[in-house]
């Protein structure tokens, strides 16, 4: 009689539960250590998939008033991230900075906000 040995060669998977709404963009950081997710709940999640906790290391909140649609990491740093939202805002996030006014639950505010990024504002060229 022969025994059949089946080896599972598929790597382990991690499920990240970061947002309460749909995810619109996902980007790896320059070092491939962190994963940023942009979502319809107006937040950005920063995760380390290798930590296997399934939750976010940081939640970036307070920069957008609508769905966060796009993300871009600094090409050489894991500390700087830019987000663009349906609200027309562009936000620059520095993960080294913790804003004292909004640190509840690890939430942060952007260090720079550009409102009306794709709109013409009356009186401005």
What shape does the CA trace take? elongated
Helix content: under 10%
- Beta-strand share of residues: 25-35%
Q: Number of DSSP strands?
A: 9
Name the descriptors.
four-stranded antiparallel sheet; mainly beta; five-stranded mixed sheet; 125 residues
Structure description:
The chain has 125 residues and is mostly beta strands. It has strands spanning 23-28, 35-39, 44-47, 58-60, 68-73, 80-85, 90-94, 107-108, 112-114. The chain contains no helices and nine strands. The strands form two sheets. Strands 1-2-3-4-8 form a five-stranded mixed β-sheet, with no helix packed on it. The chain is elongated, with a radius of gyration of 18 Å. 24% of the residues are buried. The model has no long low-confidence stretch (mean pLDDT 82).
Brief account:
The mean pLDDT is 82. This protein has 125 residues and is mostly beta strands. It is built from no helices and 9 strands.
Layout: helices, strands, pairs:
Layout: E1 23-28, E2 35-39, E3 44-47, E4 58-60, E5 68-73, E6 80-85, E7 90-94, E8 107-108, E9 112-114
Parallel strand pairs: 4-8
Antiparallel strand pairs: 1-2, 2-3, 3-4, 5-6, 6-7, 7-9
